[in-house]
Amino acid sequence: MRYRGLEYCIIGLLATTIVGCATSTGKAGLECGLGGAGVGFLACKLAGGTDQRCAAIGAGVGVAGAAACSLYAKHLDARRKELAGKENDLDAQIHYVQGLNADTRQLNADLAQRVTSVTQATDKIVAEIRQQQISQSQLAQERKARDDLVKTSQTEVNQGTQALQATKQFRSQQQAGSSSDLDAAIAQQEQLLTEAQHQVDLLAAQRARV
Q1: Could you say which of 44, 69, 94 is where a domain stops?
Q2: Cα 70 from Cα 7, distance rounded (Å)
Q3: pTM score
Q4: Is 19 strand, coil or helix?
């Protein structure tokens, strides 16, 4: 295992590089994460790792890259700009919240994928800890990667919550009367954000395992 330290060093550098790969479209954002996974796998193989180990590492790096390349905040910002000046327009508000629902639904799918990948990777790390096959410096890197992922994911949920609060404020100031469509969209967004927070809590639970 003399290449083990080199393996982690390369992966750490790759993870740092991937953080700067933000893109302007959903497709590019996905490619950013998948590209990170592929590069992570190749770097691991060059460092002498096994296929199984490198596949797990590649998935972990890909998840980190996908989180860094998340377009959720950009989508929220674009929707806020679209609504600007039309806050008292009921149809515009309904369209705005329905857009938030679509964005947060996609965020939940992304978070679920992160939970699955991180859980699998953490299972392997926990096994290595029990077998004393991982150094303290390597373990510190694994912990930092999970800390960063939890932080990124929580930030996204917080941004969605802030957007929802603004929506509720618009709703309270609405002068056009009640709207079952708007109320239903707001309720759906509340449910979606609750689900998103649950996914972040699951990520935090995986961090606590190491």
Answers
A1: 69
A2: 26
A3: 0.71
A4: coil
